[in-house]
Amino acid sequence: MDVSESLAQLEREVHLHEDARRARLTFLDEDRGTESAWTVATETKASLHSLLNSLRTPWEELFGIEMPLALLAR
Question: Domain residues of the chain, as ranges?
Answer without folding.
Answer: 3-65
